[in-house]
UniProtKB/TrEMBL annotation:
Protein name, per record: Flavin prenyltransferase UbiX
Function, as annotated: Flavin prenyltransferase that catalyzes the synthesis of the prenylated FMN cofactor (prenyl-FMN) for 4-hydroxy-3-polyprenylbenzoic acid decarboxylase UbiD. The prenyltransferase is metal-independent and links a dimethylallyl moiety from dimethylallyl monophosphate (DMAP) to the flavin N5 and C6 atoms of FMN.
Gene: ubiX
Family indicated by similarity: Belongs to the UbiX/PAD1 family.
HAMAP family: ubiX_pad
Length: 184
């Protein structure tokens, strides 16, 4: 698969870090975009820069010099993880003012898989309407809501329970998390 990973300034940099770590162990082609606010949050939450595997493409969030910003390039899926509500609003209203939002716009118009791992609580009516509009347009809204039935013993296991769902929706086999009723 050819996959684009967008990382925005929402809290939850560890979700992106763990997803990239898993994808590095696969043969999938991965391209990464990190917003400026995403870089700030990564620094605050992880205490360092995100480790991007050398085999991944890395793009600025203010460039149009990336293959996936055009529908003529063939990519399979895009995941925005974590996805801020500001990014949700811009995508929902067709505001393509960054590489991340332009890419998401392309994935929607080309009917390609777009997964938004949102990280916000509580949600107000505008958030909900934007999320509904994106769902109607074909995006999958996957809130970063970890599962607890596997009795996680670390933050990484909690995070991986969300990333397992992301990978499931990408169609990528994984055993990152305990599946319901399969651990008894």
């Amino acid at each position: 698969m050819r996959i684009v990973i967008g990382i925005t300034g929402a809290s939850g940099a560890i979700y992106a870090q763990r997803l990239l770590h898993f994808l590095a162990s696969t043969e999938h082609e991965v391209h990464v975009i990190i917003s400026n606010r995403g870089k700030q949050v990564i620094g605050l939450e992880l205490g360092r820069n995100l480790e991007i595997p050398k085999k991944f493409g890395l793009y600025s969030d203010n460039t149009m010099d990336a293959p996936f910003v055009s529908g003529s390039s063939r990519f399979d899926a895009m995941v925005i993880i974590p996805c801020s509500m500001g990014t949700v609003g811009r995508i929902a209203h067709g505001i393509s003012n960054s590489t991340i939002t332009r890419s998401a716009d392309v994935f929607l118009k080309e009917r390609r898989k777009l997964i938004l791992v949102i990280r916000e609580t509580p949600l107000h009516l505008i958030h909900l309407r934007n999320l509904a509009a994106l769902t109607e347009a074909g995006a999958l809204i996957l809130p970063a809501c970890p599962s607890f039935y596997g009795l996680p013993s670390s933050i990484e296991e909690l995070v991986d329970s969300v990333n397992a769902r992301v990978l499931d929706h990408l169609g990528i086999e994984n055993s990152l998390s305990v599946r319901w009723r399969e651990h008894f």
